Amino acid sequence: MRIACIHQGYELYGSDRSFAESVAALRAAFPLADIEVVLPRSGPIVEILEPHASRIVFEPLWVLRRQAMLRLATVEMARLPVALWRAWRRLGACDLVYVNTSIVADYALASRLLPAKALLHIHEIPEGVLRRILVGLMHWSHADLIFNSKATRDTFGEPRSARSYVVYNGVAGPAAPEPMTYDGKRPLRVLLLGRVNRIKGQEVLLEAIASLPAELKSRIEVRLVGGAFESVERERALAELVETMGLGGQVSALPFIPDPSEHYRWADIVTVPSRRPESLGRVAIEAMAYGRPPLVSAIGGLVEVVADGETGWHVPPGNAAALAAKLREIILAPEAWRGFVAAGRKRYETVFSEPVAAAAIAAIAADKLKAAIARPDRTASTRQAETQP
């Protein structure tokens, strides 16, 4: 049995970890399968993929990123025929091709020729022109689709010529939540973990903190952890904004690290003040796994992750005043949210843990592979060999 897993990234942010967890789920379900992982280049993700992949290859992929659309429509267009040919060959040679995210355009296009072999896993909520392109591309592919939330499915719509599923991302977490130690007598430790970009809302959190009265501002400590995708300028601009707003004493801008567990253990709460829709919200899920209530924007898949007033809090997106008011409540009344720790951990284990997602991904893949193995061009001996556990 041959399975190919395609991913557009190479770091260890949310979509990268979700991809690695899907590969691990496929390996656990099909231990003797030949699983080839395709990445655009080497990076931190390779280390966590190696235990599950038969091999990892690095090939150019035709990836639809918003900031690269002009280049793709001009100079990169010459690469598309070769990329399509490479994707079509791999689809023909494999029993299943699992493609992570909708922006890997060469595989989505090639899937139209062999849709029975393609499984596209969508983890993003695009906007504007890119949304129209990706929605059209996914429907045109005729491949089966996995959406990581109901919000993502609503963005793309149900395909007419293929099956679709909603499977929440399975997230690795600690064996038990960390104890909550905040009692209002020391500064509240607030973590924002994520890429530095126009979506994540780092500047909204900074504006909220800057607006607090001096007495409350002195009772809060913030870590902004993360880097910008191939953009040192964005990272430098964020650090400069902290200083310009006079928040150097409260806010630390720290670089991305592959394992953020030390930051979750440090935090009392975790903020996800996204300005634009998140397809799900992995950081909010990880926060609940660690026993750190998440304070999130009420937008996209985040409202599916966090139960407002039970496991965390919702605030309107892009509203610094509302965020500041909620931070004030959290600082002044820690006893009011102490029960969020246990409730959030229970929600994580029930809905978002790795075993729950892995079982769903494996079942969907097995269903497609049954059809592939039953194709008449396969010999009886090959079928028997490939279906051995």
From TrEMBL:
The keyword Transferase applies. Residues 188-347 form the Glycosyl transferase family domain. It comes from the Bacteria. Keywords: Glycosyltransferase, Transferase. GO terms for molecular function: glycosyltransferase activity. The keyword Glycosyltransferase applies. This is Glycosyltransferase. InterPro entries: Glyco_trans_1. Its EC number is 2.4.-.-. Signal peptide: none annotated. It is an enzyme of class 2 (transferase).
